Description:
This protein is of the alpha+beta class. The protein has helices at 2-21, 33-39, 44-50, 123-137, 156-166, 176-181, 233-238, and strands at residues 24-26, 63-65, 149-150, 153-154, 183-186, 194-198, 205-213, 216-221, 224-229, 239-245.
Amino acid sequence: MFKKVLLVAVLMFSFEATASADTLYEVKKGDSLTSIAKTYKKTVNDLLIWNKLTKDSIFVKQKLIVQKPIIGKTTIKAPQTVAAAKPVAPIKTEPIVQPVQVKAEQLITSPAPLLDEAKQLSSNGQAIYNLAVEFAGRMEGIPYLNAGITMAGFDCSGFIYFVYTQAGLKISRQSSESYFNSSASVSNPLVGDLVFFENTYGVGISHMGIYIGNNEFIHAGTKGVEKATLDLPYWKEHFVSFKRFHAVSVN
């Protein structure tokens, strides 16, 4: 009976995740922020806030959030009548930091890496992963922007920050090296885990992306948000490891 109830809960989340991620609009020639707002019965100010824009200028193929982002609805609770259901422990999260444009040298770094092996993904973590991967795939084509954390453009760690916070994970804006140092190593990666590289444009941990299965990952590279394969010689040479945020694991 419990297995049946859990399956229904998972299916219900899958529908919610898709619906939440289905809030993007790709700008077409002739569009304006005013016309898009009118089409979706929103205000221009709504679109400015949701997309973290400081002005109303937009460009063709830019992806805009046109519905209010739904964050934090990822906890799955079993019905109280099912005795065998084990309650999901609350996830320990970092304090929310207001998004700001920062230079690379200003990003937070940790003093030493954590070498512990990642714990099993929690049910809440799986829900976050599902939405994060779905949302990341819809970001393809957004241009690269140094220190970028908005739909106008991303750098690699800014992309990670934006995607996972939109999926409901409470993390602060950090550098790739700091994310590496504050996450746990993974021997067998799951779709949604992090992938790290070293000595790309800088010495040490300098690039990261999201693992999407089949030895592929999605990341914000110099050509913008794109998918890539770890089978390419360049990525093989610079690959370091797969890792997992502590907050998506069981306690």
